[in-house]
Amino acid sequence: MLVVLSIFMIFADIRYSAFSAIRPYLTLIVTPIQVVVNTPQKIFYWSSEHLASREGLVNDNNKLNAEVLMLRSQLQKLNALRAENVRLRELLDASQRVDEKIVMAEVIGFDQNAYSHKILIDKGFSSGAYVGQAVLDATGVLGQVVETAAYSSRVLLIADASHFVPVQLSRTGFRSILSGTGDLKKMTLLSVPHSVDIKKGDILTTSGLDERFPSGYPVGVVRSVAHVPGKAYADIDVVPLAQLGRSRHVMLIDPPQVER
Asked: Residue 170's domain spans which residues?
């Protein structure tokens, strides 16, 4: 019945324009229905576009993050190369101030023994290295060679607890022995009477008395001076000037007419 009525109304509207006067009002009735019918489709399209744009933003963000990481890694490498270049220039400047014969070497390893501070360098007896040879970096005395092979040598750092260096106070000329403590950032000046003129910031250099370390090379700087009542000597803490554990390039010093 409804189908027949619908067909009749369509025919009457097309043939005689029977509903032309009320068509605008019918549109008001039909519009909400059209909105309800079209809303799911619009939601679907909006969701598709939104998800697509969000996915694109996520992809772009991931690409940017990857590029940032790459640029940061390149910057770190550039900074490392710049720092290495500065160290090499410092080492070159230091080598020009050394009167003795020198052999340049590179650190290739560290001793894994927690009770011993040693490094491995890429020069051995084939390059002239020998046991007892003094080793320096760009800022000070690093240690001495204690073992050699054909193409490598082992160096005992001055901060090792078994290492001792004869030194003198640059400001006054006072001489003593600088002992390692096992701490790469701390050494101890031995047998310093309370009456000795020594203060924080004083520079200690090699005295040359052991005929192993040539005289005049910087070893450390006084960090603290403590006079403890009842003790025969003052407690003197010294910070090594060499970059112990961090130097990559070093110098082997060969004094003239050295006896091996």
From this structure: 100-260
